[in-house]
Give the backbone structure.
Amino acid sequence: MKLHLAEHVFEDLKTIYCYIATDTPERANKTVRYLYGQVIAIEHTPYIGRIVPEYNIKMVRALIRKNYHIVYKINEEDDMIHGLAIVHSSRLLSNALRVE
């Protein structure tokens, strides 16, 4: 499957970096690199994430890494994985993301 990342994913990574970097830029860099690596790995194992209970849609999944939910949608018809967002675990996914 091919991976397509929504612009929100890059915005989320930038926001995460800026937030952590106010205290420790080195940790911010490591965290963002780690999360991005996890996003890319989804391309090889798309079903590794759990079904998101807030949506209860089989193809909307979240991979939980550190304190973040990496949310993506699998589209088997066009053999694509759509990266939707990276959301801190303290936030409700239903408030942070619209899924159709």
User: Anything to note?
Assistant: The chain has one domain: 2-91. The mean pLDDT is 91. The first helix runs from residue 7 to 21. The CA atoms of residues 2 and 80 lie 5 Å apart.
